[in-house]
Structure formats: structure tokens, C-alpha cells
Amino acid sequence: MTERVRWPRRLLLVLAHAVVIQLITFGMRPTLSYAVLDVGGSQALLGVVVAAFAVPALFLALPAGHVIDRIGERISLLAGAVALIVAALLAAFGGGQVAVLLLATMFLGMGHLLSVIGEQALVANTTSRGQFDSKFGYFTFASALGQTLGPLLLALPGGTPEIPPVRLIFLVCGALSVVLLAISAGIHSSARPAVAERVRMLPATVTLLRTPGLIRALLAGSIVLASVDLFLAYLPALAHERGIAAITVSALLVVRSLFSMFSRLFLGAMVRLLGRRALMVWSIVLSAFALVSFGLPVPVAGLLFLAGIYGFAVGTCQPITMSWIAELATAGTRGLAMSLRLASNRLGQTLLPSLLGTLAAATGAAGVFVATGMMLFGGAWSGAAVGEAEGEGTAGEPLSR
């Protein structure tokens, strides 16, 4: 029998944390792109900005996940909030220097990484087996809500039609980071299983990587997430090329996030209807068609339609890989499993934007969208490795406690 869903204090705090962290991230990241363009940075440099966001995970993801498995999620949430405060202060008071903006982006990436690993591990460690798709659907719904609210900061008053009020946005994000710190302080870690003290990082990582299909599934997830990063970074550049106002860019980002949020409300039902594998593959194919179309001379109304399609499609992929990996991991290794997923995502976010950033110098932002769409077609093949949902059972304490 399916457990009746209740809304205890810890769950509400985790969902609130997910909203605020994504609000900050999706407000700051396009603003950082605008800030770089405003000080004379090239479009090719935007690829470096995207990579700078991902770099911290290449070094911190696995150790952070291992620490979470040993001492709990709360310390990761607190450290993430502090890193976000530093990022906002650097961006706001860095004097508009590209090097400082890159450093702020790295702190933003660090804060985001530590926050989401803590969130995902907490959800995974407090959810019953067989409920992962639904629970991660709710969790990623909250994340998508924050991703919807974040781009609205671009519409704050004080900017120009082409450039939003970047310093004001950074200051608002700094204030929100303080709120995030307070929320983090109120979240208690899940219970530590005794096995966690005996699990070593490298052997556990090797065991996870030997799981049939896991590497291909990680590759699919990294390509999808890199496409979202490229969308965030190069939409302002595309708008700049076509004379589209910043408030329209805000609307496009909000539409994408709204449809991602909408798709996650029905994730459990869609998985039961189509199966994880088919849903993963066809959603990636649909997102590929949408991004390729962004490279065409489409009017603003058409771009809004395409943003909705892209948002709905990519919105299904992230929670599917989360829930599948959570089911594969054993008690005491779920933080490591989630950090492995994030590390592979960040590797894609580091390599792919840097490669496509060089393409932007020759083809402009439209070429980046077309190339990203073609890349997603390869991700659809990788997504075929994702396993189907398992039956009911228990793993860890219920989330409703």
C-alpha cells in the first residue's frame, strides 16, 4: 500500500531550500553572462564562464558525497550557503572585472554543488524504495519553481533594454543566500547507518560504475544538464544578436522553467505509463529538436513555444536519473552515488561548453544552439541505458517522518 504523504517540518525545509538555491542560481547565472558582455567580454568567453561554474564539482563532488555519508547532509548545506554569499559579494563588488566574475562563478558553482548534493542525499536517504520517482518528482518540482522565479530578477528596474541591473541582482541574490543559510541551519541530517563508517570512497565508486548501463546513463544526464547550462549562457547572446530585450529573455527562461516544473508534477504517472527508458529517450529527442529550432530565424512567439517544449522535455530527464541511481545505491553510499552523478554532470558542463564556446566565435549563438541540439541526439542513445522502476520495498526511513 502506498504511504500517505504528509508534510513534516524537515521535508518542507528541504523543499524550501531547493526553491531558494535554484532561485539564486538561475538569477545569477544569466546575470553573470550579461555582466561579462557588459564589460566587453566575447561570446567565446561565455563558454569559459559556464565551465567555471562546473569546475569545483570535478574536485569536490565525490569527497563531498563521501563526507555526507559519514557525518550527514547538514554540513554540506551550510557550507553551500556560505559559498553562495561569497559569490554574490564578489560579483556585486568586484569592480566589473572579468577575472572576478569568473571567480564569483566558481564560488556559485561550489555553493550550488554542496547544496544540491545535500538535498538529493537527504531525499534519497529518507524515501522508501519504489517511491523514488514520485519523491524526486516533487523535489525537482520545487527546484523548477526556483528556476522559474530566478530569471524574474532580470526584470528588476534600473537596467537598460539590453542589460539588466546586474549589481542590484547580485545584491538580491546575496540577501537570498543569507536566507538559505538560515534554512540550512534548521535542517537535521538523516540517520547514519552503521555501514556508512565502513564504506570507503574509491571501492564504492568503482562498484557503482560497474553497474550495467550506469556510465551511459550518467553520460545522458551530463549532456542534458550541459544543454541547460548552454541555454542559460547563450540565450542572452542570441537575444543580443537579434535585438531581443532582456525582459523577453527573462520570459523565455521563465517559460522553460514553468514547463519543467509542470512535467515533474506528473513524473510518476508518466513513468508508470511509458516506462523510464522510453520516457528518457523520447524526452531527450524532443529537447534536441527544440534547441535546433532555436538556431533558426524564429519570431519571439515561436521562441516562447520552443522554450516550453524544451523545458517540458528536459524537466523529465533529471529526476529519472536521480531516482534510478538512488535505487541502485545501498544505505551508506547514497551521498556518494548522488555526488558521482553530479560529478559526471559537471564534467559535461566543463568540456562541452568550452568546446562549443569556440564555435560561437565563428557561427554566433545560433550555431551553439544547433550544435547543442545535435549533441542531445547522441544523449538520447545514451539514455536508453536507464533502468525501469523497481517494485515497492523499503530503504531508509520514510520521507514523511
From TrEMBL:
Domain Major facilitator superfamily (MFS) profile stretches: 11-390
Principal location listed in the UniProt entry: membrane
Its transmembrane ranges are 45-63, 75-93, 99-124, 136-156, 168-191, 217-237, 243-267, 279-312, 355-377
Provide an example Pfam family for this protein: MFS_1
Q: Supply the alphabetized keyword list.
A: Membrane, Transmembrane, Transmembrane helix
As for subcellular location, the record says: Cell membrane
Q: Which InterPro entries does this chain map to?
A: MFS (IPR011701), MFS_dom (IPR020846), MFS_trans_sf (IPR036259), Sugar_transport-like (IPR052528)
Coiled-coil stretches noted in the UniProt entry, renumbered to this chain: none
Q: What membrane topology was assigned to this protein in its record?
A: Multi-pass membrane protein
Q: What is this protein called?
A: MFS transporter
Q: Which organism is it from?
A: Arthrobacter cryoconiti
Species lineage? Bacteria, Bacillati, Actinomycetota, Actinomycetes, Micrococcales
